[in-house]
Write a structure and sequence with these properties.
CATH topology of the largest domain: Rossmann fold
Number of helices: 11
Radius of gyration: 22 Å
Bound molecules: adenosine-5'-triphosphate
Number of domains: 2
Strand content: 25-35%
CATH architecture of the largest domain: 3-Layer(aba) Sandwich
Number of strands: 14
Distance between the termini: 46 Å
Order of helices and strands: EEEHEEHEHHHEHEHEEHEHEEHEH
CATH superfamily of the largest domain: P-loop containing nucleotide triphosphate hydrolases
Structural class: alpha/beta
Shape: globular
């Protein structure tokens, strides 16, 4: 009975020549709210699809609720609730009709489905709007309904892929606190993906960080956050290049630099660093800067540090 909700062992998946998930071993205990964190393209969605048995691993094994994903995908999908990217609600149906329709698909009896739909709509503060076709709803309300739907037949485990994608921080916080209430009250295990560390902190008691398909770290959020306490400078704009990185890397106040799509991320040695010389240097080198933001303890800073440390370990291993 105390078997973990999810166990993966050396789970690997290739899209042709691209290794999307590499030897991933993780354990999610029953009742946990577990966040799989990672930047875009890290492999998070692929992991969820593997766990639901929608993709066949290239190698390695995953067990969900004790069932091997390669043999029991259908049973896993029946016994869990899932929210995948692009999952649609029925726009012409009302909120209540959407839930009841889903209840029928899940072969719940009508009375039970109605009672549970009511409970969820009340819990997620959607009851007053239950009879409106959801096409008139805001994005936040639809997301809430989509998340509520995963809980309809009281599954032991729900898997949510970026459940707060496109939501503002207030809508995110509300959704998370309502979700948390249900999970705690009903003992539901939650496995969710996000690329925002601050969000994971609100909800998850354990997180794993995935980067380029690899598990970089796993543990309580506070521990991982401490890893990323380094001060960061996020510079949004365009035209960043390797020559600029080389120039910046020579400066004492710069610890690390990464070019990202439409932004440059600089780890600073000190939170009080005077940043205008760095910005001037970039502008003089031709960068087109739109916005400069100081930040710390973000997922980016944790990932940056972990990648740097892994690389240092590899360099040491190569040198001996
Ligand atoms: P995001 O946060 O942007 O949704 P993610 O962490 O969920 O990203 P995945 O969608 O799992 O990442 O993608 C992991 C890698 O696999 C990426 O490099 C992606 O381009 C690649 N990939 C995903 N789906 C396919 C596919 N159908 N065919 C080929 N490559 C794919």
């Amino acid at each position: 009975m105390n078997q973990p909700a999810i166990i993966t062992d050396q789970l690997t998946f290739d899209f042709g020549a691209l290794r999307a998930v590499e030897r991933l071993s993780l354990t999610v205990r029953r009742g946990a709210i577990y966040g799989l964190l990672g930047p875009n393209g890290a492999g998070k969605t692929t992991v969820i699809r593997l766990l639901l048995g929608l993709l066949e691993p290239t190698s390695g094994v995953a067990r969900v609720l004790g069932m091997k994903t390669t043999h029991y995908g259908g049973d896993i999908r029946r016994r869990t609730g899932a929210l995948l990217e692009g999952d649609k609600l029925y726009e012409n149906l009302t909120a209540l009709e959407n839930l009841r329709y889903y209840g029928r698909l899940r072969q719940m009896n009508e009375q039970e489905s109605l009672a549970r739909s009511q409970e969820l709509l009340v819990g997620f503060e959607l009851w007053d709007r239950r009879d409106e076709p959801i096409q008139t709803w805001s994005r936040g309300m639809r997301k809430k309904l989509a998340v509520a739907r995963t809980l309809l037949n009281r599954p032991e485990l729900i898997l949510l892929d970026e459940p707060t994608g496109g939501l503002d921080p207030v809508a995110t916080a509300t959704l998370y606190s309502q979700l948390q209430e249900f999970s705690v009250r009903e003992g539901t295990t939650i496995f969710l993906t996000t690329h925002k560390l601050s969000e994971a902190e609100q909800l998850c008691n354990e997180v794993a960080i995935l980067y380029a398909g690899r598990l970089m770290a796993e543990g309580p959020v506070a521990e991982l956050r401490a890893l990323g306490a380094a001060p960061l400078l996020l510079i949004r704009g365009d035209g960043f290049n390797e020559a600029m990185v080389a120039l910046l890397a020579r400066r004492r106040e710069v610890v690390d630099i990464r070019i990202q799509p439409h932004s440059l991320l600089i780890e600073l040695a000190d939170a009080d660093t005077h940043i205008s010389p760095l910005i001037n240097l970039l502008v003089e080198s031709g960068a087109d800067i739109e916005e400069v933001q100081r930040t710390n303890a973000s997922l980016e800073s944790v990932v940056m540090r972990l990648v740097r440390e892994k690389k240092a370990d590899q360099d040491i291993a190569l040198a001996v």
